[in-house]
Amino acid sequence: MAARAAAQLAKLNPDTIVAQMQSGIIFGITAVLWGEITLKNGRVEQSNFDNYRILRLNEAPVIEVEVVKSSADPGGIGEPGTSALAPAVLNAVFAATGVRLRKLPIKPELLKST
Asked: Can you give the CATH number for the domain in which 30 is found?
């Protein structure tokens, strides 16, 4: 598995842009696969990273980020990597299985029930 992204360089350090895109992609994958907040007795059960599953480095795909020069004013760079992940992964699941999921995180039972 690999993730590819492109971002415009606008008067910012290109290494910062790459790092922001990479972390946004990792966060997006985490949300798609495990990003569920559950409640018990009116309280959120996930209180910290010891009980909230995140993507680990050894599970991460190769992430390629291409930085394209631009004269535009700088804007947010972390969000594009995150917001594009759910539609991309769900479309890949649909292409592989024929099942169109409309709820996150992806769970095996969702693939079986539709």
From this structure: 3.30.365.10
Element (H, E) at 113: helix 108-113
pLDDT band at 21 (very low <50, low <70, confident <90, very high): confident
Total domain count, the chain: 1
65-85 pLDDT tens trace: 888 877 777 677 767 788 888
94 φ/ψ angles, rounded to the nearest 5 degrees: -60, -45
Place of tokens 């079986």: 112
Q: What is the pTM of this model?
A: 0.78
Residues 24-40 have pLDDT tens digits of 999 999 999 999 889 99
In degrees to the nearest 10, what's the CA dihedral of 11, 15, 61, 109?
-50
Residue range of the domain that includes 37: 2-113
SS3 content of the chain, % helix, strand, coil (to 5): 45, 20, 40
Are 103 and 36 in contact, with CB atoms under 8 Å apart?
no
